[in-house]
Amino acid sequence: MTFVRSVLFAGWLYLMMAVSGLICLPQTIATGGKSMAGGRMWARTTLFGLRWIVGARVVFKGMEHAPKGAAIIAGKHQAMLETIVPFIMFERPAFVLKAELLAAPVLGWYAKAMGMIPVDREAHASALKKLLRAARPARDAGRQIVIFPEGARQQPGVAGEYKPGVAAIYRDLGVPCVPMALDTGRIWSAKGIMRRPGVATIELLPPIPPGLSRDAFMKTLEERIEKRSQELLLDTPRYTSGA
Hints:
Shape: globular
Order of helices and strands: HHEEHEHEHEHEEH
CATH architecture: 3-Layer(aba) Sandwich
Largest sheet: 7 strands, mixed
Number of domains: 1
Radius of gyration: 17 Å
CATH class: Alpha Beta
Strand order of the largest sheet: 1-7-6-2-5-3-4
Structural class: alpha/beta
Number of helices: 7
Helix content: 40-55%
Mean pLDDT: 92
């Protein structure tokens, strides 16, 4: 049954990505890409599908730490889910994403139109310079820059290597960084289509103020994210289908 529900949800996920994109296309064009309506609709329909198809739901904590203006959101990465829900967590998120995603249908066009920040992970030093150049306009526009320092999704309980790009953005932009802990891997597999019933938590932690040295920042960021993410995994929240 879990497999069947997972297949149904996968169809729902990508169908609603296309539907959200088409419905919100006029508003996106009219606002020059400033509207987040398409992303917000996709995020809400994703959570709806998780709840009623899979039997899973997501709890958001620490939302009092959600920045209103320019900031960095640096998150743990266990599932595709946390690349979708920031649309309803923040006012105008700008995601740091793989450059090849810009070629994807619907998603790629929207990413370009909404000013997302592409990074070529194979280009090394030149990629870092391009990343900073692309991030500055997002900061100047008061947006929340969402980045996953591990780069790739990790299995629950596994700490990936934190890449230096987040420290470069932090030092260059001079804005606070809000760590984001989560345990989404308990309901959404890092790879494949399997989704499981249960409750996942995404939690914003107190912001790290600007001005720390590179080493101090990276140490603080990784310790906070990994410690809280592990605590969330060890917790066993109750789930009620009608909650």
